[in-house]
Amino acid sequence: MSDVLSKIPIKIKVEGVGEAEGELVRIYAPLTVDRLLRMLPIEGRAHPINGGVSIIIGIKRGEEKSVKKVEAGTISYWPRGDAVCLYYAPVSTQSPVNRIGKIKNNLDHIIDIKSGTPIRIYRINSA
Q1: Does pTM top 0.85 for this prediction?
Q2: Lowest CB count within 10 Å: 9, 63, 92, 96, which one?
Q3: Domains of the chain and CATH, by start
């Protein structure tokens, strides 16, 4: 699969803070990523978690190539919380997550997110 098809560029807009760019990567968890792509744009409010923030999205997917450790910059789907998670620090997660992408720049914008801050995740070419 070509890079164009397997890596989908996204922006993460954090109200009052700024924007970060990232990408969803199909090979990490193809079914989960495809479901999220059909939902974009995703809008929600930040909920602090260990090493990052989560946004409840309501897709109710199960585990897919799940992991318990993530790196700074990881974007994941957390089945137990039915949420997209954005990590600014490497952590061992409370329960397995499906790694779905990565944040490519402005990771500091994720660190600055406060509880309840509106977040919007969208494809760069469909803002």
Answers
A1: yes
A2: 92
A3: 3-126 (2.40.100.20)
